[in-house]
């Protein structure tokens, strides 16, 4: 059993969470001699995947359970839902690189993709009749309000209770999403010196649309989001210094998103506020990164990295609440999310590590440590100070360490390791589950032993 809320109450306990992915992928490539000054690659790709998910949840102690128990006159505390999806991707692509001189290289690429998705979603009673009874009552109320005719009989156990608002009937959601896209890339590499490379790239890519796999009272929650696109501008350098003892890499980037896919609230006229996937019309990410690696003395390597990110919504009129209209249905209240931070985008991320290897008695003694940190972020799109405080994902600094021995030729190694060795409490996500705001705790201190052997 999994708890998604971290309390002793049964607010949303996952009693069953089974799933599988069966995937087949094949790619064919044709390329010329990689030593040529003009290099090319052409190819085609095919992918076919089947996804299955089966879940059972218990929410006996949630507020909605108490309210709905009064409606149907019996306990309302559990439900099942499943999702079946098929994904097919077809793609053809080509890439070229041309060395204009020993210092200057131009490169480009293009990829055409067709993505086909189908989804079958179902939410159903697990056998006690409570879900069937509740949704029969709810759907008959809906049918009366919108003049769909007389009442329907009790939804049979095991049948989907999700409401199709177009027909006024419960049913299994079935839909398809077919999209195509053309991705491309242009870039230039310039070897200013034998130890300094400068580069600049611009590219456009896509993330395919998708269907959510959720427990839903209405078909609106099953609706797909369309593909998101990204135009990526980046420039940077790679260099080695002090007889290649020091490596220094740096870059700046700007991501221009359209229709970015995010989890957010939707408002159904009958069911009110619900979770769903949405497309944010415009957003952007800009930032910079720097990496340094240095062999300080024989056997000792020190590495450091830092990334700065400024990720914000440029345009999105999202849901901030709802209001009942004159006929008792719900209308959305929208707010301007322009300038809101994108979820899970800490402004600062950094790491510092040191590794030392010492020959000792025919083996190499190795030891090392890594310190990683990131600043705070948000688990949801938020524009009010109250929501920003409520859904904050705290910043943290974690320390790991390792100690072991390995063969001089690297054929075998044995080492012990520890992660988050100071047992820092932190959380990785913050969401709302029914009437509870949940923080997903990060992993505590962990220790282990790894044995590695290379067969020849």
From TrEMBL:
Keywords: Cell outer membrane, Ion transport, Iron, Iron transport, Membrane, Receptor, TonB box, Transmembrane, Transmembrane beta strand, Transport
Cellular compartments annotated: Cell outer membrane
BP GO annotations: iron ion transport
Pfam family, one: TonB_dep_Rec_b-barrel
Domain called TonB-dependent receptor-like beta-barrel: residue spans: 25-421
PROSITE patterns hit by this protein: TONB_DEPENDENT_REC_3 (PS52016)
InterPro entries (alphabetical): Beta-barrel_TonB, Beta-barrel_TonB_sf, TonB-dep_rcpt-like
Membrane topology per record: Multi-pass membrane protein
Annotated GO CC locations: cell outer membrane
Family (UniProt): Belongs to the TonB-dependent receptor family.
Protein name, UniProt field: TonB-dependent receptor
Taxonomic lineage from the root: Bacteria, Pseudomonadati, Pseudomonadota, Alphaproteobacteria, Sphingomonadales
């Amino acid at each position: 059993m999994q708890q998604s809320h971290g309390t002793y109450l049964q607010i949303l306990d996952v009693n069953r969470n089974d799933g599988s992915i069966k995937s087949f992928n094949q790619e064919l490539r044709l390329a010329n001699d990689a030593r040529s000054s003009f290099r090319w690659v052409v190819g085609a790709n095919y992918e076919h995947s089947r996804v299955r998910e089966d879940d059972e949840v218990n929410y006996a102690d949630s507020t909605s359970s108490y309210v709905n128990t009064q409606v149907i006159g019996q306990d309302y505390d559990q439900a099942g839902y499943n999702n079946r999806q098929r994904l097919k991707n077809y793609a053809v692509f080509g890439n070229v690189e041309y060395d204009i001189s020993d210092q200057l290289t131009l490169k480009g690429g293009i990829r055409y993709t067709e993505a086909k998705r189908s989804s079958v979603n179902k939410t159903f009673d697990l056998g006690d009749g409570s879900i069937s009874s509740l949704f029969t009552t709810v759907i008959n109320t809906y049918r009366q309000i919108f003049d769909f005719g007389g009442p329907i009989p009790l939804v049979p156990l095991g049948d989907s209770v999700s409401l199709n608002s177009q027909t006024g009937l419960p049913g299994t959601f079935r839909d398809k999403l077919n999209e195509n896209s053309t991705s491309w890339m242009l870039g230039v590499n310039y070897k200013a010196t034998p130890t300094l490379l400068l580069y600049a790239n611009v590219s456009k890519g896509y993330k395919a649309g998708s269907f959510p796999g959720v427990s839903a009272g209405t078909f609106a929650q099953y609706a797909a989001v369309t593909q998101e696109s990204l135009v990526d501008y980046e420039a940077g350098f790679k260099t080695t210094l002090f007889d290649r003892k020091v490596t220094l890499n740096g870059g700046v980037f700007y991501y221009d998103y359209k229709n970015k896919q995010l989890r957010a609230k939707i408002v159904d006229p009958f069911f009110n506020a619900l979770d769903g996937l949405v497309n944010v019309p415009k957003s952007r990410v800009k930032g910079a990164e720097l990496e340094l690696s240095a062999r300080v003395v024989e056997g000792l390597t020190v590495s450091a990295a830092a990334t700065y990110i400024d990720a914000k919504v440029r345009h999105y009129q999202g849901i901030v609440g709802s209001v009942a209209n004159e006929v008792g249905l719900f209308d959305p209240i929208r707010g301007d999310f322009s300038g809101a931070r994108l979820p899970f985008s800490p402004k600062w991320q950094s790491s510092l590590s040191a590794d030392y290897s010492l020959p000792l008695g025919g083996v190499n003694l190795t030891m090392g440590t890594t310190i990683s940190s990131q600043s705070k972020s948000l688990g949801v799109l938020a524009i009010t100070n109250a929501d920003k405080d409520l859904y904050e994902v705290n910043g943290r600094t974690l320390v790991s360490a390792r100690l072991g021995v390995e063969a001089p030729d690297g054929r075998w190694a044995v080492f012990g390791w520890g992660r988050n060795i100071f047992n820092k409490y932190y959380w990785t996500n913050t969401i709302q589950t029914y009437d509870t705001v949940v923080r997903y705790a990060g992993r505590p201190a962990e220790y282990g032993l790894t044995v590695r052997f290379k067969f020849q």
